[in-house]
Design a protein that fits this description.
Blueprint lengths: L24 H17 L23 E4 L2 E4 L10 H11 L5 E2 L11 E3 L4 E5 L6 H10 L3 E5 L12 E5 L6 E4 L6 H10 L4 E2 L2 H5 L6 E2 L3 E5 L3 H9 L3 E5 L21
Parallel strand pairs: 2-3, 5-6, 8-9, 11-12
Antiparallel strand pairs: 1-2, 4-5, 7-8, 10-11
């Protein structure tokens, strides 16, 4: 995770961002701190990277690396405003003894568009990540990749349209918002995950799908109450956090969280 020390909205690279609206960095820091402490309270270890001036979106750490079995595929941002973030994260990995670190040649926004189910990597495209980056991820990470087409600009990354509930289960469980995907990708998702939790427009519009699950606890925005009820019916424990200020940049719990696997 990266603290939102310099968080603001000074440009617009997704439909959620409006530089004309006021933003409180102080409130963003408080909400981020609540999220970090929530993870720690649930028993998770949180590693930190220092925020850098001039990079207001660096708080969204999920976009800067994909880690599976200790192998790291870095990111290559589409928006020039975020491009410098990638090298800060690359150096962090090397300084923390990760040796299998590969920087991509194709545009990929890491866990923004790459979601590990425990068996395969779901890979989004349509707004940010280059489709050719999916093949690059398969070569670098050595895992099977399934491409999914995003069609709604509000849900510009895979991680605001889908999340994995349990990547340790024999049959991975996911939750997703069908209308964020093309018709063909919806058919793929139904085939792969016939028992998925399906989100509604209301769930998606508060970034309820930008959630983090550890297989039991699901950390999600406080507004996503109906989705939380459906998750509880499946045996998961919803854990609410307020991300209203961070949402002004189109981010939520998952955007702030890169998962270090192995």
């Amino acid at each position: 995770m990266c603290p939102p020390t310099y968080f603001t909205v000074e440009y617009s690279i997704n439909p959620w961002m409006d530089p004309s609206k006021p933003v409180s960095t102080e409130l963003a820091v408080a909400q981020w701190t609540e999220l970090k402490e929530t993870y720690e309270r649930l028993g998770h270890k949180v590693e930190l990277i220092d925020a850098q001036p001039g990079l207001p979106d660096m708080v969204f750490a999920a976009n800067s690396g994909t880690v599976i079995d200790g192998r790291v595929l870095g990111s290559r941002f589409r928006a020039p405003q975020r491009a410098a973030e990638a090298d800060h994260f690359r150096r962090w990995f090397l300084e923390h003894s990760y040796r299998a670190v590969v920087m991509p040649t194709r545009t990929n926004e890491a866990e923004g568009d790459f979601t590990w189910t425990g068996q395969l990597l779901l890979a989004g495209t349509g707004f940010r990540t280059d489709p050719a980056a999916h093949a690059e991820a398969q070569e670098v990470l050595g895992v099977p990749v399934v491409s999914l087409q995003l069609v709604d600009p509000r849900f510009y990354h895979l991680d605001v349209a889908l999340f994995v509930l349990d990547d340790q289960a024999e049959r991975p469980q996911v939750c997703y918002y069908p209308e964020a995907f093309s018709a063909g990708s919806q058919r793929v998702l139904r085939r792969l995950f016939p028992d998925a939790v399906l989100a509604t427009a209301t769930d998606a519009e508060c970034l309820g799908l930008n959630a983090v699950s550890d297989g039991r606890n699901v950390v999600l925005p406080v507004e996503a109450t109906a989705l939380a009820d459906r998750l509880a019916e499946r045996g998961f424990e919803p854990v609410f956090v307020d991300i209203s200020e961070l949402r002004k940049s189109g981010g939520g719990p998952k955007c702030c969280t890169m998962e270090l696997r192995g």
